[in-house]
Amino acid sequence: MKAALLCLFVAAAYTASAVPVNSEFSEDREYPRFIEFPDGEGIMHTVDLEAELDHELLNEISRNPANNIYLLYTKHNPHSPQTLVMNDIASIYNSYFNPHVPTVVIAHGWLSNQETDINPTIRDALLDKEDVNVIVLDWRRLASSLYNTAVRGVPAVGRGLGQFLNFVNFVTGAPFDSMHLVGFSLGAHLVGNAGRELQGKVARVTALDPAGPLWNLNSDRVKPGDAIYVEGIHTDGGYTVGGLGIGSNVGNADFYVNGGISQPGCITNICNHNNAWRYFAATVSYNHIIGKECSSSWQITWNSCKGDDLPMGNNDLRKFGSGRFRANTSRRYPY
C-alpha cells in the first residue's frame, strides 16, 4: 500500500512539473528581483528587474524613432544591405525595395544587433525561398541598455517601426497586407507594438518565444489584433525561474513546441529560447513542422492533442488559424 501511494505521489509530482506554461497558469507568474538572461551571443547576464531606469535614453527613444536602423536585403543584394531612412524618400527610391513583393521585417532581442545570428539565418531562408524584401531592424541603441530599461522602451521602438512602415507604404504603395513582422524575445513584443501602430493591418506578426520577465501582465506585450494573423512560437516557457519565454498565449494561434518548455538536444534555457528562431527559419525553407490543435494544457504536456492540423511558422502571408497547438521536432536541422 505504501509503495502504491509513493508511486502515485511521484507520478503526481512529475505531472505538475511537466505542465507547460499557458494562459491558465502563467499570468500571475512572479520572477525574483535578480535573474539570468542571455544576450544575442548566448552569454548570460545577471539582470536586476528593479534597477533604476535610464529615463534620459527612454525620452530620447520616444522622441526620435529614427534611432532605429533599417537594413534592406533583396535578391539583388542578399549579403550587402542598403540602409533605408525614415522620412528620406531618396533612400527608398534609390534602393532595391520592390513594393510588388512581400516585405518581411526581422527584429532581434536584447543586447543584440544586425550581426546577431537570428538575422542572417532567417534572412537567408527567406531569400532562398522567394523574391522578398527583407528588412533587418537594428535597434541596438535601446537593446544595449539595462534589461528593464529596454523593456520599458520596446513600445516606443515598435511604434517607430510602425511609423517607418507607414512611410514605406506612403512612398511606394507597398500594401500592409503584404508585410510580415517577425520578432524574437524582446523583439517579439516590439513587432507586436509595430503592428498595433498600424491598427493591425499588416498580414502577420510572428512572435518567436516572446520574452517573459516583466511581460506577463504587461499591456504592451504582443497580442491578437496586432496583425491580421498573430502567431506565437513557444520554446522556453517553463514556469521555473530559468524560463526565458512568456509561456502563455499571445496570438491567434500559439504553438508549444515539444510541449513549450524544453527542446530536444538542449540542456540550457538559452538553447531552448534560441531554438524558436531556428525552427522558424527551417519552416520557411521546408514548411514541414505541423501542429496539432489541443483542447487542454494536459494534452500539450502529454502530446495527446487530437484536433486539426496547422503548419507552424513558414512564410505564408494568407495563413490563418486559432487555438493552441503542440508541434514536435527532432533535435537536428531541419528538425
From TrEMBL:
<dbReference type="InterPro" id="IPR000734">
    <property type="entry name" value="TAG_lipase"/>
</dbReference>
<dbReference type="GO" id="GO:0016298">
    <property type="term" value="F:lipase activity"/>
</dbReference>
<dbReference type="InterPro" id="IPR029058">
    <property type="entry name" value="AB_hydrolase_fold"/>
</dbReference>
<keyword id="KW-0732">Signal</keyword>
<dbReference type="GO" id="GO:0017171">
    <property type="term" value="F:serine hydrolase activity"/>
</dbReference>
<dbReference type="InterPro" id="IPR013818">
    <property type="entry name" value="Lipase"/>
</dbReference>
<protein>
    <recommendedName>
        <fullName>Lipase domain-containing protein</fullName>
    </recommendedName>
</protein>
<dbReference type="GO" id="GO:0005615">
    <property type="term" value="C:extracellular space"/>
</dbReference>
<feature type="domain" description="Lipase">
    <location>
        <begin position="66"/>
        <end position="305"/>
    </location>
</feature>
<dbReference type="GO" id="GO:0016042">
    <property type="term" value="P:lipid catabolic process"/>
</dbReference>
<comment type="similarity">
    <text>Belongs to the AB hydrolase superfamily. Lipase family.</text>
</comment>
<dbReference type="Pfam" id="PF00151">
    <property type="entry name" value="Lipase"/>
</dbReference>
<dbReference type="InterPro" id="IPR033906">
    <property type="entry name" value="Lipase_N"/>
</dbReference>
<feature type="signal peptide">
    <location>
        <begin position="1"/>
        <end position="18"/>
    </location>
</feature>
<keyword id="KW-0964">Secreted</keyword>
